[in-house]
């Protein structure tokens, strides 16, 4: 019995080490690849070229404003919607959830097909600029956004908080901004980060819609200078990872703080 | 393992004796069991009672074989089972909660142990049905655990544990996840069943009321050892140590002065139950049950009544002594009528030997 | 598609639970009750439903807008039919391998402290790799297993030239390797809750009733975990089927996978004016993914009761 237990405690370590090496390998390879220079030497040449590389800063800037636009529009649309469903129409939760999860069933390559048709005659400002990406990325992010906000709102005594605020004379916009939002700020932050990460990596829509975004630039540059694209993709993966990791630490701390006050604890 | 095909009455068997000898078990720095000795007679229900972390659950899990010991031995019917793996011990265990297999219907949960023992399907079904009748759930056999209430789930768990005709029944705080009313009801039912089947039972709980009302004997544990193991009445009336006295029931802490084999409390001399580890004249805290304190309304009494709460036959009166000590007294409601807040009262104590609080 | 139907029905049932015989005033109240959903419905209607409807409609139109089934017929024959087969094979392979490896890894990760750094790092890394790195992963693997990747060179140095041996990162096997790299983390994300729902008491109760380790897995753990495992497998399958960026970035659009061919048709890279054939292929994908996800939700809902 006891020997069995002790053996059971060892295999996870082996699995974790093997998996860790497997998942780190392409990252290490990327680093090595990005440091390669002519004649089997290594240098920071590719990294040095980065900033002055044509298109990088422009496309990065485009992707960043699309990302912030997506985050803002997502929150503007979904925080009131999910709060409203939680407060006023809990029976419609499944309905809203169903719609929000639909993008998982529609491959982006199919969605973009329809987008081309629907917005072919739309004003230039919509289909000629990355604005259309903002609109559609809100849709692509909907499954994550809904789940994150739903989890955040389910974890707080929303009805009590809102009734208390209304009872003290707060208007609905004030309730949303000053009461609901601060209480689900970890969820909002999480949703925002996932949106940001999605936009910084999304290739299907922007390439088919011929928008010069950061991932599109990476692919086109990679065809001539793979070193630069490898360096940039490694960097962007790391940045997104660090952001998510920091979020998980912050949110972990917050749930611990909140625990004594949750109704279930009493 | 033989399985009888007769009615539940036949489950009854000559009980099994259990003995713990010097059990030791540490988790890192913490000693969960620190030389535990306990003997359980055949057919007896012993409750292990104690604060969380006192080692009571560890003791039960050691008997089940789910936990190993560092030292000591476990004897079942005189035979050493210390090295026997859990799945060979024939111990029927009921867990705190959520132990039913979610993928199996209630009757398949109950029949699980029989299936492992190769009992024929028809026999299995009949036995499961009998046991479900025993716990009053014979109409629920086709349901799944998630369709049952917490109390019903625990009944099924009990039926499942009994189905294998275990040598000993182990109950690991089986009622703690239930609400008050169901808890009392199921508690009494467990006791009825246990007496009917006559099975040796170890019951672990942190709820003193539960332990006192169900067990033949209650063992109070502290830091991995048994402080006292006695009948509920003995435990309450003659606690062996101050720890037991304070853990079981309510106690007043009243200042007193040691005088030989006696202690002087509020002008009264009381006999010490055990030799005081204190010098003459030393200030100590004396443990007194509320029912051994009597208050009578007297204008020059030394206690001042501050509060009272009616509890039916008795009324609990709270009074303050001149030195600020708060005193609880349980008085027959008829005699407590004139002890209203603000009244002065004289204090008397029942002439029983008393214990001193620890560390004071 | 079935998914949207069931949820719509649930929504309708929720509404009809209101008191019977609505008077005019009650209708107003009910409409006002839906008011809060209006922005959401309008938005998803315009940016999600409308494009999907256009794909479905376009799949049955010729270039002049007349009704035809030619697109749909073409979409399931010859190179396009083969693309469906290849896509499904690739998805099935990477889903099965990803699910098995991911499940083992998930169990290993769960044996660590829940609030430890390792758990948090693994969760974050899985989130990045599973969801957001299509293009980035393509480049990471070019650096690893590309013709001058570090592993390729290392293997060549010990005399094993995999490209001589017929391997290429830019073919079926290569793409499968990269897909598995993001399928495993996805499995970790979707399967971990099921493993977390497994209670220690079940193992102990089984052991207590006389079960060996194998009997516990056969009668309890296996049956309990099988449905969520299958559900996760389906999700991985759908995920792989929909993936576009990685394969596109790796192969420049020359591998016979359905999403790649849709991309080529839409951008007019191959033959002009075949957009509607692209829509027919898209319709096929939606049907396949929709069916898979419908089964996924069915299983998920049932097991939620066991493991909740």
List the helices and strands and how they pair.
The complex is a heterotrimer of chains A (266), B (360) and C (308).
Chain A: H1 2-8, H2 11-35, E1 36-37, E2 41-42, H3 45-50, H4 56-88, H5 93-101, H6 108-118, H7 124-127, H8 131-140, H9 142-154, H10 158-167, H11 172-183, H12 185-201, H13 204-208, H14 214-222, H15 226-258
Antiparallel strand pairs in A: 1-2
Chain B: E1 18-27, E2 30-40, E3 45-49, H1 56-64, E4 71-76, E5 79-80, E6 91-94, H2 106-116, H3 121-134, H4 150-163, E7 168-172, H5 180-197, E8 200-205, H6 208-214, E9 217-222, E10 225-230, H7 232-237, H8 242-247, E11 252-259, E12 262-265, E13 268-271, E14 283-288, E15 293-297, E16 303-311, E17 314-320, E18 326-332, E19 344-349, E20 355-356
Helix pairs in contact in B: 2-3, 2-4, 3-4
Chain C: H1 2-16, H2 24-35, H3 38-59, H4 70-75, H5 78-110, H6 117-131, H7 134-145, H8 150-157, H9 172-197, H10 200-208, H11 213-242, H12 245-251, H13 258-266, H14 275-307
Helix pairs in contact in C: 3-14, 5-9, 5-11, 6-9, 7-9, 7-12, 9-11, 10-11, 11-14, 13-14
Structure description:
The complex is a heterotrimer of chains A (about 270), B (about 350) and C (about 300). Chain A has a single domain (about 55-260), classed as MetI-like fold (Orthogonal Bundle). In chain A, about 75% of the residues lie in helices and about 0% in strands. Chain A has 15 helices and 2 strands. Helix content of chain B is about 25%, strand content about 35%. Chain B is built from 8 helices and 20 strands. Chain B is elongated and about 80 Å long. Chain C is mainly α and about 300 residues long. Chain C is built from 14 helices and no strands. Chain C has helices at about 1-15, 25-35, 40-60, 70-75, 80-110, 115-130, 135-145, 150-155, 170-195, 200-210, 215-240, 245-250, 260-265, 275-305. The model of chain C is unreliable at about 1-20 (pLDDT under 50). Chains A and C meet through helix 2, helix 4, helix 5, helix 6 and helix 8 of A and helix 1, helix 3, helix 5, helix 6 and helix 7 of C.
């Amino acid at each position: 019995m006891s020997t069995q237990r002790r053996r059971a405690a060892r295999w996870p370590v082996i699995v974790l080490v093997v998996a860790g090496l497997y998942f780190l390998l392409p990252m290490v390879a990327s680093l090595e690849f990005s440091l390669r220079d002519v004649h089997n030497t290594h240098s920071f040449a590719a990294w040095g070229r980065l900033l002055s590389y044509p298109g990088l800063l422009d496309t990065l800037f485009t992707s960043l404003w699309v990302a912030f636009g997506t985050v803002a529009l997502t929150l503007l649309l979904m925080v009131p919607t999910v709060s409203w469903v939680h407060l006023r129409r809990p029976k419609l939760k499944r309905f809203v959830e169903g719609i929000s999860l639909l993008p998982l069933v529609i491959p982006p390559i199919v969605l973009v097909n329809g987008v081309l048709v629907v917005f072919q005659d739309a004003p230039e400002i919509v289909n000629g600029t990355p604005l259309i990406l903002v609109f559609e990325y809100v849709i692509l992010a909907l499954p994550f956004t809904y789940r994150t906000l739903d989890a955040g709102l389910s974890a707080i005594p929303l009805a009590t908080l809102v009734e208390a605020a209304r009872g003290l004379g707060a208007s609905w916009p004030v309730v949303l901004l000053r009461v609901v939002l601060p209480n689900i700020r970890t969820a909002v932050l999480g949703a925002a980060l996932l949106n940001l990460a999605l936009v910084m990596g999304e290739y299907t829509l922007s390439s088919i819609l011929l928008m010069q975004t950061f991932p599109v630039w990476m692919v086109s540059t990679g065809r001539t200078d793979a070193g630069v694209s490898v360096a940039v993709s490694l960097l962007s993966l790391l940045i997104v990872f660090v952001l998510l990791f920091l979020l998980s630490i912050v949110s972990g701390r917050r749930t611990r703080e909140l625990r004594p006050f949750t109704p279930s604890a009493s | 393992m033989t399985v009888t095909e007769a009615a539940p009455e036949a489950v009854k068997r000559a009980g099994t004796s259990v003995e713990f000898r010097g059990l030791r078990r540490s988790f890192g720095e913490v000693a969960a069991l620190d030389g535990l000795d306990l003997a359980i007679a055949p057919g007896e229900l012993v409750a292990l009672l104690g604060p969380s972390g006192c080692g009571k659950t560890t003791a039960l899990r050691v008997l089940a074989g789910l936990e190993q010991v560092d030292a000591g031995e476990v004897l079942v019917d005189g035979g050493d089972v210390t090295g026997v793996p859990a799945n060979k011990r024939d111990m029927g265990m009921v867990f705190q909660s959520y132990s039913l297999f979610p993928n199996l219907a209630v009757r398949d949960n109950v029949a699980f142990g029989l299936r492992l023992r190769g009992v024929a399907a028809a026999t299995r079904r009949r036995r499961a049905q009998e046991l479900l009748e025993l716990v009053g759930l014979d109409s629920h056999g086709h349901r799944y655990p998630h369709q049952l209430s917490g109390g019903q789930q625990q009944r099924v768990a009990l039926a499942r544990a009994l189905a294998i005709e275990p040598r000993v029944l182990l109950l690991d705080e089986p009622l703690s996840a239930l609400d008050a009313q169901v808890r009392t009801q199921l508690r009494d039912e467990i006791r009825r069943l246990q007496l009917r089947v006559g099975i040796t039972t170890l019951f672990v709980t942190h709820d003193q009321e539960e332990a006192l009302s169900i067990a033949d004997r209650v063992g109070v544990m502290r830091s991995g050892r048994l402080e006292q193991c006695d009948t509920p009445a003995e435990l309450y009336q003659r606690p062996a140590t101050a720890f037991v006295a304070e853990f079981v029931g309510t106690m007043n802490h009243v200042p007193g002065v040691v005088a030989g084999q006696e202690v002087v409390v509020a002008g009264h001399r009381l006999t010490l139950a055990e030799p005081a580890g204190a010098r003459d004249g030393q200030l100590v805290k004396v443990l007194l049950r509320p029912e051994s304190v009597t208050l009578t309304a007297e204008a020059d009494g030394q206690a001042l009544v501050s509060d009272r709460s009616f509890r039916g036959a008795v009324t609990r009166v709270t009074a303050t002594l001149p030195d600020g000590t708060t005193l609880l007294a349980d008085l027959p409601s008829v005699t407590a009528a004139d002890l209203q807040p603000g009244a002065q009262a004289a204090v008397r104590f029942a002439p029983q030997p008393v214990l001193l609080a620890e560390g004071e | 598609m079935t998914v949207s139907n069931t949820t719509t029905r649930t929504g309708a049932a929720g509404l009809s639970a209101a008191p019977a015989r609505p008077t005019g005033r009650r209708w107003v109240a009910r409409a006002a009750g839906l008011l809060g959903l209006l922005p959401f419905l309008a938005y998803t209607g315009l940016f999600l439903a409308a494009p999907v409807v256009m794909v479905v409609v376009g799949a049955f139109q010729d270039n002049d807008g007349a009704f035809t089934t030619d697109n749909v017929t073409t979409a399931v024959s010859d190179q396009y039919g083969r693309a469906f087969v290849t896509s499904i094979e690739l998805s099935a392979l990477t889903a099965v391998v990803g699910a098995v490896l991911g499940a083992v890894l998930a169990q290993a990760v769960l044996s660590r402290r829940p609030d430890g750094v390792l758990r948090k790092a693994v969760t974050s890394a899985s989130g990045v790799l599973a969801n957001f790195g299509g293009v980035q992963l393509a480049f990471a693997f070019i650096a690893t297993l590309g013709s001058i990747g570090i592993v390729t060179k290392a293997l060549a140095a010990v005399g094993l030239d995999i490209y001589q041996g017929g391997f290429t990162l830019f073919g079926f096997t290569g793409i499968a390797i990269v897909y598995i790299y993001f399928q495993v983390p996805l499995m970790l994300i979707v399967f971990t809750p099921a493993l977390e729902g497994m209670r220690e008491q079940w193992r102990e109760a089984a052991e207590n009733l006389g079960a060996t380790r194998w009997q516990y897995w056969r009668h309890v753990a296996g049956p309990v975990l099988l449905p969520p495992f299958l559900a996760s497998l389906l999700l991985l399958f759908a995920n792989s089927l929909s993936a576009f960026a990685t394969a596109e970035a790796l192969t420049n659009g020359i591998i016979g996978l359905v999403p790649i061919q849709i991309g080529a048709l839409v951008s007019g890279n191959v033959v002009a004016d075949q957009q509607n054939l692209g829509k027919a292929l898209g319709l096929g994908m939606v049907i396949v993914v929709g069916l898979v996800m419908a089964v996924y939700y069915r299983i998920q809902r049932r097991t939620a009761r066991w493991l909740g």
